[in-house]
Amino acid sequence: MRSNAGVIAVTVVALFLGVLAVTQIQAQDVYSRSLQLETPASLTTLIANLSERNNAIKEEILDLRHRTDTAREAIASGKGSLTEAERQLSPLRVFAGMSAVSGPGIIVRVEGTFDERALSDLVNELRNAGAEAIAVNTARVGPRSWFGATPDHALTVDSAAVSGPWLVRAVGSTEVMYVAMTRTGGIIGQFQLIYKGTRFDVTRESALDLPALATPLR
Amino acid sequence: MTTTASAERTRLTHSLVLLLPAVLFGLLVSVQWRTQSDRNELTVRYNTPLLDAAKTLQNEQNTLKAQLADLRAELDQIQTSASTQSGSAKDLQARIDELKLVAGMHERTGDGVVITLDDARGAAAAKDIEKSICHNTDLTDIVNQAWRGGAEAIAVNDERIVGSSSIYCVGSTIMVNGTLMSPPFSVVVIGPQNDLLATYDDPTQLRDIKQRRDVYGLGFRVSRASGLRVPSYGGALNVKYATPR
Hints:
- The complex is a heterodimer of chains A (218) and B (245).
- With 218 residues, chain A is of the alpha+beta class.
- Chain A has helices at residues 2-32, 40-76, 82-95, 116-128, 174-182, 187-194, and strands at 101-111, 133-136, 139-141, 147-149, 155-157, 160-162, 166-171, 199-210.
- Chain A folds into three domains: 2-27; 38-94; 100-210, 2-Layer Sandwich (Alpha-Beta Plaits).
- Chain A has six helices and eight strands, in the order H-H-H-E-H-E-E-E-E-E-E-H-H-E.
- In chain A, the strands form two sheets. In chain A, strands 3-2-7-1-8 form a five-stranded antiparallel β-sheet. Chain A has a three-stranded antiparallel β-sheet with strand order 4-5-6, with helices on one face.
- The model of chain A is unreliable at 26-33 (pLDDT under 50).
- With 245 residues, chain B is an alpha+beta fold.
- Chain B folds into two domains: 42-103; 108-230, Alpha-Beta Plaits.
- In chain B, helix 2 packs antiparallel against helix 3.
- The longest helix of chain B is centred in the N-terminal third of the chain and has 43 residues, at 41-83.
- The mean pLDDT of chain B is 86.
- At the A-B interface, helix 1, helix 2, helix 3, strand 1 and helix 4 of A face helix 1, helix 2, helix 3, helix 5 and strand 4 of B.
- Strand 1 (101-111) of chain A pairs antiparallel with strand 9 (243-244) of chain B, so a sheet runs across the interface.
């Protein structure tokens, strides 16, 4: 009788435990990845990023409306649409990495141990901060660029070796990129903790000259 | 004397049998309680308006991107019809079209591979949450690997990867080209299938992801696929500071 009671008690506990374990796994499953569980701080960052991007799209919409009208008028008056085509060409050449570019921006200098994944993360972070053109040493980073490493610890950009110290140059809004890199808890701060002994310097630059992609894309 | 000792032992065994589940039970209750207590008062007070704001902005962005796509198509059409007029306009238009193709401004279709990435599900996942969920760096590694394998076009959950794209992570939400997304992720890659498969199979590559798949059950699968479609980039071109030389 006594031992039966014990078995029943254990069964009840085990059952309850099972139910709880399942609830726990499900709770994490649903909560962990949904927007609803983000902290107010994360949500605020997301909102700032979204609204910045929406503003950029709005600006381009306004610009395109104006250009569409101008192109229509030009064609109607027999002037053709050469001017509009020329205007379209230059941002596209920058965007595709097909032309050498000049402009303000920042330089991230890395001296010491570093690897291709960190370089890829750094480029990702610069792009998120609005970098319009990026180069690592003399190699321009294009839309399809990839990062690798050679057996002797040099890094590669599109299979061309680039050895340290690395100068990652980015053209774009100097202040936005500078703050994105150097803010507390930002990528440089993280690198400094992971790659102890490696030196990271971020500088604001008023004029940078970046080369075009070595091999044009097809 | 012996009988008492044996009864004592049996009681002790029973108590021990109950002890283990009791401890586990306590552990689970506390974990459950902590999960809930993370949503503190501040979170509850500010999250609703912030969530609404984020959703409104995302919806606005979808509308804006649709408008942008319409305008781009309209201007394209004007340009194309005008470029039939003169030889130089025709050449210029051909160069623009070529640039748009490599920059990701046109939709692409073709064969390639599809990579799926998802949070681990099941018991193994509970061992280490950090290692069993997808991170933005997993996606940047997967995309980097695709370019290495000769990819011509890539999209992550229907967002085209272009020169300005970043895979950004805030909290546990991932943003690509300004679009909010969460797992599962589907990375569609158009390019040479055998080279792409070989680069993902290479045991020296993506070691971290593969190890987490084997140990924690992270969802990671690469499969050959035909008739894939990668949409055109729908965001802003955003070239303000860089001038071509």
